[in-house]
Design the sequence.
């Protein structure tokens, strides 16, 4: 019982110490992990000294005794601490933005890890002569990264958000790859030491095992997370139950994968976390999702702190074994690790930029990515696991553990402490000319507004006391001081600043609509991610980037194209319907927000950036409004009434929110009892559930109805229409899609059931509307296409392929005659 009390005392003191280190880290602008490592080693050395000397310091001695009892075995580190660290990293990442940078993330997470393992192993083997597989294991241990310091720097200097996403995604995925490689090399060493033929001892079988465990972990993690996502919405309002299920998911996905399925438990946890991050916001209430992330942030803080403190205390004993071999080895590790990172960032990253798979990254930020490749808790965990593996030779265990711990300390005490110097060297700690000019302008305007408010207060005071209005300061408004010549901005620079300001405001408006429960979590995630992408693009390219981005989003994205392909290939309507409904809602919300941005531009931007910049920005907003209105009109014409249904749903959700706030106010005022309030809340919950689902969008692709809208088939009897229907296929064309191209194969003809298309032939443009058809001339003549046919908006078409065309015309001469008559007129 005494040992238990000592352990509780020790935990209490450790949590107090690590919490006090947080403001110190902020004060000295150091990563929290640096101070954790210092505190852990300090407590380890001090505790060993106090206990060995038998010094009695009362509570302090008892606490160190508790810390000694608290030091868990190294075999516990991996399953106890690693899953929550990985799950939190995956839960907090923006999956949509991660997919935008997936090429760069995979380069840094997979290729960079393999390059790091190879470089570290090669340099260490060359420098020390230690067995190459041992060096490969050491490379896997030190290839994991801690992105906290780099992300903090990117946030402080206003770097594009995609760089923070890049650092987060890299850390998350390279942890999974590195730990999988760690298990692979551990298995090879154990097989070699024990002669166990079941473990992979050659390169080919090792790679096969690695791929099997990696892919198996992905599949298991996704499956278990999807099961969890079916459970979470059914737990009601219990935040504790939701957090408990996700905690169970974390450890179950790790243990089941590692112990029972024999695949990568780490990869399984990472995939489970990403799946919850992708589906959680749309399956849980916003308050519940926020509460869940707060719980996991707290768990991550505790786990990270305890890992560093306990591991540093263990490392304090291990570091007593340091000799020149280990010092030489850690120098080789540092050379190999940072050379590999520089090779990937400066050598391979430009290849992706050239191929336009990622947006270009400034060389200064690349330098921060290289020098900021700190090592943290995961590296220490792996080192402690290797140190405690009794099947490995003692010299191997000591070499891995000591070299890895020394390298972690090197990155913390050298890289982390000099990141500020690197920032200063590249000027990242200084405001740019644009930022200085904007700062001075904001200060000047703020002083003027403060003066105006003070004058109003004094004037009101004089009116109340003396009965007359006097402005003791001045009778006029102060003028804004002119900008110093060295900070004067041209029109393009001011427009760029204005665009960034407007895009930031746009994101804020989306979040406000979400807080008002007018927007769903899924819609706000899409729109906010789009706003972040737009901000990054404007910062990189200014007005040109803004216009390019608007042109890009006006085109169907990959998701829409896939939905369209699934519909055309397999006749699946649900995915296409969801995509069209998404576009309806996005266009409607965007149009509303653009109206507010126009007002914001007129009221706030003119004073800040002058009138000419405000007019230029107003023109850009107007052009975007026109594009959105046109796209929305095209959809509304094809699917009349749906936009009104969506708007009615948004208004109903807003009304429910206002009613809920009113009921809470009445309850607090004591006007209604708790029983009445509960009854009213239940009724609101029923209404909220009724409007939680988006109105169904009818594509209008019922084949019989579409055939009836084609004049060519109007005179056919019912039996013939049924026969024709078996040969026709419904198709949706999106605005601007080129349905037929000049020179293309004549493989089908098309009937317009709804919408319009334009035929471009020999310099002429011919519009075809509902009931018309095209593409028949190529089938009749068996010649390549001689015209382009482009959809004017969303069009519903009926497709008749050549084989069915020939069979239909041979059986129905009247249809052949009608088609040939139209073809003759067109010829």
Sequence:
């Amino acid at each position: 019982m005494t040992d238990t009390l000592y352990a509780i005392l020790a935990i209490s003191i450790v949590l107090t110490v690590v919490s006090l280190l947080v403001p110190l880290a902020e004060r000295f602008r150091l990563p929290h992990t640096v101070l954790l490592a210092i505190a852990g080693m300090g407590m380890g050395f001090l505790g060993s000294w106090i206990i060995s000397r038998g010094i009695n310091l009362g509570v302090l001695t008892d606490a160190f005794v508790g810390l000694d009892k608290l030091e868990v075995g190294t075999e516990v580190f991996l399953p106890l601490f690693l899953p929550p660290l990985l799950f939190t990293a995956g839960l907090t990442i923006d999956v949509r933005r991660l997919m935008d940078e997936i090429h760069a993330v995979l380069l840094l997470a997979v290729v960079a890890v393999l390059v790091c393992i190879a470089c570290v192993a090669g340099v260490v083997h060359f420098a020390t002569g230690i067995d190459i597989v041992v060096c490969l294991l050491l490379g896997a241990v030190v290839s994991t990264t801690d992105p906290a310091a780099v992300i903090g720097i990117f946030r402080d200097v206003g770097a594009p958000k995609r760089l923070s996403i890049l650092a987060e995604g890299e850390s998350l995925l390279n942890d999974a790859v590195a730990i999988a490689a760690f298990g692979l090399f551990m298995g090879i060493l154990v097989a070699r030491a024990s002669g166990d033929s079941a473990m992979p001892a050659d390169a080919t079988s090792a790679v096969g095992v690695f791929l099997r465990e990696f892919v198996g972990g992905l599949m298991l993690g996704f499956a278990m997370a999807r099961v969890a996502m079916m459970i979470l919405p059914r737990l009601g309002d219990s935040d504790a139950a939701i957090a408990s299920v996700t905690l169970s998911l974390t450890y179950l996905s790790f243990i089941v994968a590692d112990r029972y399925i024999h695949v990568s438990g780490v990869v399984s946890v990472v995939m489970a976390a990403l799946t919850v991050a992708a589906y959680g916001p749309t399956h849980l209430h916003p308050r519940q999702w926020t509460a869940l992330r707060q719980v996991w942030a707290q768990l991550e803080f505790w786990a990270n702190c305890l890992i560093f403190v306990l591991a540093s205390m263990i490392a304090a004993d291990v570091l007593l074994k340091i000799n020149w071999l280990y010092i030489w080895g850690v120098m080789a590790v540092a050379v190999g690790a940072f050379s590999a990172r520089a090779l990937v960032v400066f050598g391979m990253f430009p290849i992706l930029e050239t191929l336009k798979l990622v947006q270009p990254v400034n060389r200064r930020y690349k330098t921060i990515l290289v020098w900021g490749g700190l090592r943290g808790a995961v590296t220490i965990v792996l080192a402690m696991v290797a140190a405690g593996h009794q099947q490995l030779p003692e010299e191997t265990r000591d070499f891995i553990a000591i070299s890895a711990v020394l390298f972690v300390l090197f990155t913390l005490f050298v890289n982390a402490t000099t990141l500020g110097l690197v920032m200063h060297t590249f000027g990242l700690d200084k405001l740019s000319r644009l930022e200085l000019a904007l700062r001075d302008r904001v200060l000047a305007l703020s002083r003027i507004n403060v003066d105006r408010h003070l004058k109003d207060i004094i004037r009101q005071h004089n009116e109340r006391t003396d009965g007359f209005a006097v402005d003791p300061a001045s009778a006029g408004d102060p003028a804004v001081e002119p900008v110093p010549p060295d900070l004067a901005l041209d029109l393009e620079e001011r427009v760029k600043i204005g665009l960034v300001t407007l895009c930031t405001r746009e994101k804020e408006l989306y979040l406000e609509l979400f807080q008002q429960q007018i927007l769903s979590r899924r819609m706000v995630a899409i729109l906010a991610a789009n706003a972040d992408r737009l901000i990054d693009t404007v910062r990189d390219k200014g007005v040109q980037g803004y216009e390019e981005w608007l042109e890009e989003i006006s085109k169907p994205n990959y998701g829409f194209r896939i939905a369209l392909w699934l519909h055309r290939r397999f006749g699946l309507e649900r995915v296409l319907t969801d995509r069209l409904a998404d576009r309806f809602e996005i266009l409607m919300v965007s149009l509303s927000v653009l109206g507010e941005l126009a007002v914001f531009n007129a009221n706030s931007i003119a004073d800040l950036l002058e009138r000419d910049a405000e007019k230029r920005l107003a023109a850009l907003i107007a052009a975007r409004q026109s594009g959105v209105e046109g796209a929305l009109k095209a959809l509304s014409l094809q699917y009349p009434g749906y936009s009104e249904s969506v708007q009615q749903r948004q208004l109903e959700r807003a009304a429910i929110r206002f009613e809920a706030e009113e009921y809470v106010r009445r309850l607090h005022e004591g006007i209604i009892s708790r029983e009445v309030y509960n009854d009213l809340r239940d009724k609101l919950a029923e209404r909220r559930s009724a409007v939680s689902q988006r109105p169904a969008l009818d594509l209008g692709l019922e084949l019989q109805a579409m055939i009836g809208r084609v004049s060519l088939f109007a005179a056919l009897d019912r039996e013939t229409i049924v026969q024709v229907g078996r040969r026709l296929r419904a198709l949706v064309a999106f605005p601007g899609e080129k349905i037929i191209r000049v020179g293309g194969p004549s493989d089908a003809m098309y009937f317009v059931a709804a919408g319009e298309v334009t035929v471009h032939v020999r310099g002429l443009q011919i519009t075809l509307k509902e009931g018309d058809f095209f593409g028949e001339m190529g089938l009749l003549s068996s010649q390549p296409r001689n015209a382009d046919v482009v959809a004017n908006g969303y069009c519903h078409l009926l497709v008749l392929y050549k084989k069915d065309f020939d069979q239909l015309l041979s059986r129905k001469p009247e249809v052949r005659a009608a088609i040939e008559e139209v073809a003759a007129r067109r010829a």
Observations:
- The radius of gyration is 33 Å.
- The beta strands are 728-733, 738-740, 748-754, 757-761, 764-768, 773-774, 788-791, 795-801.
